[in-house]
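HUMAN:
Just now I want nothing more than another pair of eyes on a protein record. I would be glad if you read both lines and explained how they fit together. I have put the entry right below:
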Amino acid sequence: MSKVIPRLKSLKSLKEPTEAELTKQIIDYLKYIPDSTFKKIRGSMGMKGILDIIGCWQGRYIELEIKRKRGRLKQHQLQRILEIQRAGGISKMVRSVEEVEKIFGYKRLKVRG
């Protein structure tokens, strides 16, 4: 008699999220940061190096570049991050919602399931 091994319902939960999925998770988190406004950027808005998310928090300009675990910044993206930081804004490459939580200091509420 052979044993049947049940198939996993989905391997999606084991896979790293795509940049689009990660960006959506981060935007969903940012909606709840007080005194802020953020927007996902589609395309470069005519400026090479504009990052994935722009916004303002407590009067400070912010740009975030979303990368997956193995993603690397392009030279123009690194230059943009440094330019914003020199001007007093907040700009970083982030790989998870947890990294964004560290920037703003607000934790997401964990839903028990």
Observations:
- The chain has one domain: 17-104.
- The beta strands are 36-40, 53-57, 60-66, 90-94.
- The longest strand covers residues 60-66.
- The chain has a mean pLDDT of 84.
